[in-house]
Specification:
By secondary structure, the chain is an alpha/beta fold. The protein has three domains: about 80 residues, Orthogonal Bundle (Arc Repressor Mutant, subunit A), CATH 1.10.10; about 90 residues, D-Maltodextrin-Binding Protein, domain 2 (3-Layer(aba) Sandwich); about 90 residues, Periplasmic binding protein-like II (D-Maltodextrin-Binding Protein, domain 2, 3-Layer(aba) Sandwich). The protein contains nine helices and twelve strands. It has a five-stranded mixed sheet. The chain has a three-stranded antiparallel sheet with strand order 10-7-11. Strands 1-2 form a two-stranded antiparallel ribbon. Strand 3, helix 5 and strand 4 form a beta-alpha-beta unit. One of its GO terms (molecular function) is DNA binding. It comes from Amycolatopsis carbonis. One of its GO terms (cellular component) is protein-DNA complex. Keywords: DNA-binding, Transcription, Transcription regulation. InterPro entries: LysR_HTH_N (IPR000847), LysR_subst-bd (IPR005119), WH-like_DNA-bd_sf (IPR036388), WH_DNA-bd_sf (IPR036390).
Length: about 290
Amino acid sequence: MELQQMRYVVAVAEECSFTRAAERCFVVQSALSHQIKALETELGLTLFARTSRRVDLTAAGEAFLSAARMSLEAADRAVADAAAATGQVRGTLTLGVIPTVTGLDLPAALGDYRRAHPAVRIRLHSGGSDEFIAATAEGSVDVAVLGLPEPTSAKGVATRELARERLVAVVSATHRLADRRRLKLADLADETFVDFPAGTPGRAPSDRAFQAAGVHREVAFEAMSPTLILDLVRHNLAVSLLSPFVLAGDADLRTIPVSDGPSRIEYLAWSSFNPSPAAQAFLDQVRPR
């Protein structure tokens, strides 16, 4: 069994196509198919159920895929650790990033990192803080940017604070409150809100602040995308509470400080258990905005 055969299996499983997998691996399809067939023969198992239009993993293939991924990760880590012993940084850096990163100029940080460590493959994933805390703790994500309400802490991972900020009310330029210089949560009690989905760390600061103030609010719209949230506000369908840094001089929107409004903390998070050389290099480089 060869590592390349495992890479082919992973590619076919992820692409659900021998043709696309071959293109991804930069080999002709016949060669990739031959290697997978040879592997199946060696194992005495069928890894894929094939038809002319469809490719699915068998039960044996599902079990093999998980172990194959771990084996490939272990092989990559072995090469990276050996290179690190000679002062080189290689391997893969997997980053998990929330949609509302404000405490870090991520494109600039990744640009600096790529120039300093060109041999490292960078994988970037967008998602929520909860999933990235779990993924970082289990090792499938190397480093993550999290946004959490005070006084929540990220359990199972090491963290470094990047930013601490108070959220502001965001309204359209034609909203009745657009000319106000400061608000209280009670001033927003009768408004329709757009916010992140209930139960997510992005939503928690606002929910906690309204509960502490004894103010009820109606969240009619839920979205994970800040762009969609701002579009709904721009069209006067709702108001929101967001980081003041999410907006970039939009003439159709207004931001208003909220004296008793919620705060959030942005963290850089990583597994403290034996971080890879690529992850450690990123942690050593990154500084808050």
